[in-house]
Amino acid sequence: MAGLAASGSNPDVDLLYDINGLAKDAPHWLDRTVEFVGEYGLLLAMVLLVVWCWWTVRRRPASAEEAASAVAALVWAPLAAGLAVLVNVPIRGFVERPRPFLDHQGLEVLVSGKTDYSFVSDHATITMAMGVALFVANRRFGLVGIGLGLLEGFCRVYMGVHYPTDVVGGFALGTAVALLLSPVASMLLTPVMKAVEGSGWAGWAVRGRSARAGGRDADTVVPGARVESASAEERDLAA
């Protein structure tokens, strides 16, 4: 398994050289930017995106059940990433694929000191797991998250620290964990978030003050009251 990409005559290695070759022709400042973005920046951006989505969701008028379910889906995003990385530990140990710069000469390696195995990419796994989990919670934010994950994968190959198939494997692993375990996570986390929402000291983390007020108005229905439709109101106004 260690020789998964030992030959330079396969598409995986060819694509590695093509993408990493961009680093050789790029200006020094661009390489340093990609190095920071690929190593730390996109991970930080993904965390901030989840926080931004949480801040938006908790301020929307909703019932306690809806708010708890929405926040539970967001809590699952970082948990999915962490679980996917744990799943990757035995995978790396089984495949034992060396880093590409150890088997192939002439690569422009932007980050030194990488001594662990290459398959699958932790960075690609983390970002895609969070992006897909975020998509389950909120499609608009999720699409941005998936885009960040794809950019992370490109950066890892550009930096010369991963094969393209390392990145694809990370995408597949992160997506599988986030999607397959999402129903179980929702079932377990929603009651927890509902309990937090009902507490006096941490309820703000699930529903903001304006969301609580709006949720109470939406839930308040007078028994036997007649609900007029929008079309009926329009007809009354027209008369």
The number of E-state strands comes to: 0
Mean pLDDT over all positions: 83
Instruction: State the distance separating the first and last CA atoms.
Output: 78 Å
Which percent bin holds the helix content? over 70%
Poorly predicted spans = 1-8, 217-239
Q: Which terms summarize this structure?
A:
single chain; disordered N terminus; 239 residues; mainly alpha; disordered C terminus
Task: Write a brief caption for the model.
The chain has 10 helices and no strands.
Explain this structure to me?
This protein has 239 residues and is mostly helical. Helices cover 72% and strands 0% of the residues. It has 10 helices and no strands. The chain has helices spanning 11-25, 28-57, 64-95, 100-103, 122-137, 139-158, 164-180, 182-198, 209-219, 230-238. Helix 2 packs antiparallel against helix 6 (139-158), helix 3 (64-95) crosses helix 8 and helix 5 (122-137) runs antiparallel to helix 6. The protein is elongated and about 60 Å long.
What is the topology?
Layout: H1 11-25, H2 28-57, H3 64-95, H4 100-103, H5 122-137, H6 139-158, H7 164-180, H8 182-198, H9 209-219, H10 230-238
Helix pairs in contact: 2-3, 2-5, 2-6, 3-5, 3-7, 3-8, 5-6, 5-7, 6-7
